[in-house]
Design a protein that fits this description.
8 strands, 320 residues, alpha/beta, TIM Barrel, eight-stranded parallel β-barrel, globular
């Protein structure tokens, strides 16, 4: 069981947000009933795990679900990346040390590794589970075919691959044609990231205007991830969602988070925050039911700028 809203610290803890502010955001998440916390070893070059570990210190461990990931580079060597047995077994130990915990609830393959046989990867994950260092295994940004192959091997090896962590929002729906139907068939849930499309669906970015100071779009790294969303056509259509959100009694960001949660295969939506107020606002999307007519109008408004091509779920051909 996970909380419908998860707290994630990509692009924030250890980089954009000072530690005191990060702690305040985690406290706000706990106060609002969030029990699921997602991070990765690569975030802020391992610093994000350290910050989250310190922020959760003293909490009842059994009352939390702590997730992390492995794949992207965490050091200079050729074995400091990917999903080889060597890297997985070394990485889980580093993550547990930084997170100040004996185990993680979910350990996720942060991408698919074409340079390592899937059998080797899944055997290493099976050993991590048997060692008690992770309770469950998940993946992130895997295609439907990769998820199917991973689930089959996990079952053979006697452990559960239970989740996929894809990007998903009103604007980015590439999981809908293939990943979601396959996951439903296999009993895999989606823990989705960027439900507010890196802040674009909050409505704070307006066509023809410079991004407000201090927002993610003004941060060099954040802006790089947002390029395809920051066109005038996208921003113009997003602004037209404002009256729909008002009709539903929601802020635009709340509407965006509530929208992804309408998908029955979505178990949890990950939110990030640089201020506690953002956490308190976004959790209000939990439990909201949007009627079919509102969902239809959203589709109609955003139609031409929505991305649905399943081929856009990709992993690097070679380890980065």
């Amino acid at each position: 069981m996970v909380s419908e809203i998860s707290y994630g610290n990509w692009l924030t803890h250890g980089s954009q947000v000072e530690e005191e502010a990060a702690f305040a955001c985690v406290r706000a998440a706990l106060d609002e009933g969030i029990t699921t916390f997602d991070t990765a070893d690569v975030y802020a070059n391992t610093k994000a795990e350290e910050v989250l570990g310190r922020a959760l210190e003293g909490q009842r461990r059994e009352g939390l679900e702590i997730f992390t990931k492995v794949y992207w580079p965490t050091g200079p060597g050729p074995n400091d990346r990917g999903l080889s047995r060597k890297h997985i077994l070394e990485s889980i130990n580093g993550s547990l040390r930084r997170l100040k915990t004996d185990y993680v609830d979910l350990y996720q393959a942060h991408r698919y590794d074409y340079e390592t046989p899937l059998e080797e990867t899944m055997q290493a994950f099976a050993d991590v589970v048997r060692q008690g260092k992770a309770l469950y295994i998940g993946v992130s940004e895997w295609t439907a075919e990769q998820i199917r192959a991973g689930v089959a091997l996990a079952r053979q090896l006697g452990f559960q691959l239970i989740s996929n962590q894809p990007q998903y929002s009103m604007l980015w729906r590439v999981i809908e044609p293939q990943v979601v139907p396959t996951s439903k068939e296999l009993g895999v849930g989606q823990i989705v990231w960027s439900p507010i499309a890196q802040g674009v669906l909050s409505g704070k970015y307006r066509p023809g205007e410079q991004p407000p100071a201090g927002t993610r779009a003004t941060d060099e790294r954040g802006a790089r991830f947002m390029q395809r969303l920051m066109t005038d056509e996208v921003l113009t259509r997003v602004q037209k969602l404002r009256p729909l959100a008002e009709e539903a009694g929601l802020a635009m960001a709340q509407l965006a988070v509530a929208w992804v949660l309408q998908n029955s295969n979505v178990s949890s939506a990950i939110i990030g925050a640089s201020r506690p107020e953002q956490v308190k606002e976004n959790v209000k999307a939990a439990g909201v039911k949007l009627d079919a007519e509102l969902m239809r109008r959203i589709d109609e408004l955003l139609g031409p700028v929505v991305e649905k091509d399943p081929a856009l779920t990709v992993s690097p051909e070679r380890r980065p």
